[in-house]
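Cross-posted from the bioinformatics board.
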Amino acid sequence: MNDQRIPHLHAIVLAGGSGTRFWPLSRELSPKQFVSIFGGVSLITRAVTRIAGLAEPGGVHVLTNERLADELGNHLKAQASLEGVVIDYLAEPTPRNTAPAIALAAAYLARLDPEAVMVVLPSDHLIEDGAVWDRTMRLAVDLATQGRLVTIGLEPTHAETGYGYIRAGAPIAGAERDGVSGHEVERFVEKPDRAAAEAFLAEGGYLWNSGMLVARADVVLRELDAAGEKAATPESAVAGAIAAAAREIGALPPAEWIMPAARERFAALPAVPFDKAALEVSEVVAVVPTDMPWSDVGSLLALERLAEPDERGNVLVGNVTDIDSEDTIVYSADRLVATLGLTDLVVVDTSDATLIARKDRAQDVRLIVDALKAAGAPEVVQNRSSLRPWGSWTMLLVGEGFQVKTIDVLPGCRLSLQSHAHRSEHWIVIEGHAKVEIDGDVFEVGANESKYVPLGAKHRLTNDGETLLRVVEVAVGDYLGEDDITRYQDDWAR
Amino acid sequence: MNDQRIPHLHAIVLAGGSGTRFWPLSRELSPKQFVSIFGGVSLITRAVTRIAGLAEPGGVHVLTNERLADELGNHLKAQASLEGVVIDYLAEPTPRNTAPAIALAAAYLARLDPEAVMVVLPSDHLIEDGAVWDRTMRLAVDLATQGRLVTIGLEPTHAETGYGYIRAGAPIAGAERDGVSGHEVERFVEKPDRAAAEAFLAEGGYLWNSGMLVARADVVLRELDAAGEKAATPESAVAGAIAAAAREIGALPPAEWIMPAARERFAALPAVPFDKAALEVSEVVAVVPTDMPWSDVGSLLALERLAEPDERGNVLVGNVTDIDSEDTIVYSADRLVATLGLTDLVVVDTSDATLIARKDRAQDVRLIVDALKAAGAPEVVQNRSSLRPWGSWTMLLVGEGFQVKTIDVLPGCRLSLQSHAHRSEHWIVIEGHAKVEIDGDVFEVGANESKYVPLGAKHRLTNDGETLLRVVEVAVGDYLGEDDITRYQDDWAR
């Protein structure tokens, strides 16, 4: 793969997200980019894998927030396709839309490598084709190297009203390669109404704005400065201030970005999108049209892509039994869902929550999430399963004074050396082999054997075998929250 | 309560049922009469409790089938309102509709007590009022003692097309008591269409046929004989043969009813309803009209009774979050269900299955059950929880080579002395105190302690405390079916 890499190419993978539009498949601690139902791996895994083969070694940077950074690390570490890929996790000080985020990333990269070309990629889009992707990226990088701000425009397949559009202009001389060509941008168009979208489709030359950007890091900052000076629009008038703050904060080590000083500086920036702050007023913007299959997975209706519809237009995925429904999507992660005579609905079933919505209200799932958040529902925060750097756990039952989990520990991994002030733990090994340390003593525990961890004991669970270690844990105590943990040593420095 | 009892009164509680129309709340091994959501106790508990105060001691007979008899015993034993009530469980040889079943019960009771008056009660109806019930029953018994076949007719509250009707005739002289009166029956009417039902309601004098019957056992047999002789209709022409077979089989001890000889004899009988075989042609039939609140809980739409509708006509019960739905019923047993913009649906969520149906298709839930049965789905057979004579268990996870359950043992109860050929068991006591016997050794196991039961060991779990014993069981083995059990001693002779 090394000969495929493009020198100075750095990926900035945007991975914030609040987990609202794809609930109950997405959660606050497991937002849309973690959803792993399209082709079996998560959207962010696909995004990172896609760019990791092109970026220079160490050139994959994931820009997220403080709360999600650990979850992302746990998640991406578990992905086979990313084995050996070194990922640089950056937590932005606070969410301020894409102009401040991209400016900060540019400032950071420009110091790392003055010749850095950055590819800014959303992590929650679904892109299906590898070959077209490669050709598109390589041409975009060519143009970026020449000083352009390069956007990627998708050939529209229908009159979509949910995306912004880019009106492509004249071809750029010499910007053609492997059947892909670069164009000037005539103008950016906000999300259109139905009639306008249909006119765009009929007229041709309009492309969906994918939100992807390819540019030299120094050009990004320079164009922000220029936009601020020109001040042609209210949103671009603030671009210079954004670039200035980004240069300041980007000069700090990333760990300091979330300290109070940087956070306050960043929080004071206007929350504007990069398109408005720079692209719409820049004179060096270009667009590379492409017809690769793409979706922003903007709502649960994207589940339609999971299977061919049946003869009544239903897409039924998982353990689903239907009679006489029409144009309905039913996705079940594992439980049985039976449907009878439904029309134009979307049903999503997960182990702890079920959503049933009219299809044309799919965008309003956020209202459900808002209501649940207001009620303190745990189902908006996390799934019943949680990835950890050493493996994963799944909650089976939260009972009165006890809870039951399965714990999977990867070969060669161990949990932290820890103790709990409020619970004892009973571990029953189901498969694999465990080394259990309790107050300094070490026990070998094989399949169908168990071990008791008394309240307060310093203990550690290690998989010293070569296969998965699976344990059932029964915790007993008056308080069972994940935060009752004191760590004495941790391979992941938590 | 003893002074409330009516001498010679015997209840025949009809408790077969296939668990189809109320799925997923009902299952094959836990049919509609087990459903405990109306007022917190099951429909059959309500039915048996209602009649147990009136019947003579030992006069409560539950007529069911072989497969359900144990489940019913486990279920009713656990009901506080039935403490001290002796119940006689009778398994009919095979299901042949109500004429053979009632005839057999009559033959059985007539031998037990030549003066027996039988009250035949469906076990899956919902009746809300105690005082009216009592007055209605007492008058019906008076009439039955005088040789009448007495039906109970409900004053209709709306133009229902799902029930048969009884057209009441002239009052029976002297048949009045506490404001309740008996009437001749002018005619029985099959389920009407909408127009006819509306006409009945407008005209008055039409009653819903409740399916309840009060009659002397010998009169039931005599009237079947008479109907057979008169042979006025095809269904009544076979009534004499039904009575003859019932007398033969009813002379056997009930345990022999399910032996091949009796079963074949019974299976050969025509499967006709008692209404058609006898009531419609009898000259001694009477009806007692009553206005007690009643429902046959004929479909999931009966869930509407669980709560007052909100301002948009929704009935939302359990952990339900709704936005903008209308005229929709959502029942959730424990999981979170979120609904958005639905209209005229019924949603029922249980721990292992969710049903979503258009309200006007509620009767077709049986089609879903048929499809699931054909596919071998375990979700049509039983719930994740199961009552036992000693308490109950709930399955948390059926994994590869292991399963996890919670087990609740009632104070003073113990499981059978047993062994398993294919699994070991790890027991962790969560609350209460256990006595654990393993191959003859006895261990005291308190809360937060555990015990291991090796494969093949003769073992027994006893709650020798005065509070509930709750245990988490992790079973490990290559086969985990409930039928891998050898019992050496059992307090319930299983």
